[in-house]
Specification:
It contains four helices and eight strands. The chain has a single domain, classed as Aminopeptidase (3-Layer(aba) Sandwich). The chain is globular and about 50 Å long. 20% of the residues lie in helices and 30% in strands. The longest helix is centred in the N-terminal third of the chain and has 12 residues, at 57-68. With 208 residues, it is α+β, with helices and mostly antiparallel strands.
């Protein structure tokens, strides 16, 4: 799998340099019945998926940034520590980790706070583990978990800052796009939430 900065499929972005914003297209996807998962055997010895009960805020944010910085994930970074702690302790919010031996290889968050629905709020791999055949297993495992209980709908969203294959992968596994929208995003690198080298596939919208 190509890195964000080297992937030629990364789309050009419309920039508003005066406001420090870039245009993002967000696509919402859903499934209303569980897919046929097939085998959920791990792709390699020592690969496991485990829930992370009551994660410490600092440890959680470290992993969130490991996974999300290349894709400009900023949602949690604009929240207060108190709000993050409340979310992590909420019984309707689950944090899961993908392990490869002793190393954490991925992060997934399931939001069950709406009755009958599960949102896959965040899903991704630590960069060093991309391209090792772990993502499909992790996603199928988390989908099986998302459908646990009396669930009528599982949904998520992706955007133009995600990997170029993300939308295709989600549709291939059974998600159906049901709406898209345009958002103007204040670049988190300009606000110091992310380092300037994060998300190299997206130009920083600033005056030359």
């Amino acid at each position: 799998m190509l890195s964000p900065e080297s992937d030629p499929r990364a789309p050009a972005r419309t920039m508003d340099c005066a406001r420090g914003c870039f245009r993002s297209v967000v696509t919402d996807l859903e499934m209303t019945a569980p897919p046929e998962f097939g085998s959920l055997s791990p792709p390699a010895p020592g690969v496991t998926v485990q829930p992370w009960a009551d994660p410490p805020v600092d440890e959680y944010l470290t992993l969130f940034r490991q996974v999300g910085d290349p894709w400009l994930w900023y949602g949690r970074l604009r929240a207060s520590r108190a709000d993050i702690a409340d979310l992590l302790q909420h019984p309707g919010h689950e944090v899961w980790r993908l392990w490869h031996g002793p190393s954490v290889a991925g992060l997934c968050e399931l939001d069950r706070r709406l009755p009958g629905e599960t949102e896959i709020a965040y899903f991704g791999l630590v960069p060093n583990f991309i391209g090792r055949g772990l993502g499909g297993y992790f996603l199928r495992t988390m989908l099986a978990e998302a459908w646990r209980g009396e669930v009528r709908r599982v949904w998520l969203h992706t955007c133009t800052e995600d990997h170029p294959d993300a939308l295709t992968v989600y549709q291939r596994i059974g998600f159906r796009p049901y709406q898209s929208r345009e958002e103007w995003v204040r670049d988190p690198r300009l606000d110091g939430l992310l380092p300037r080298h994060a998300g190299p596939h997206v130009k920083i919208p600033e005056a030359p």
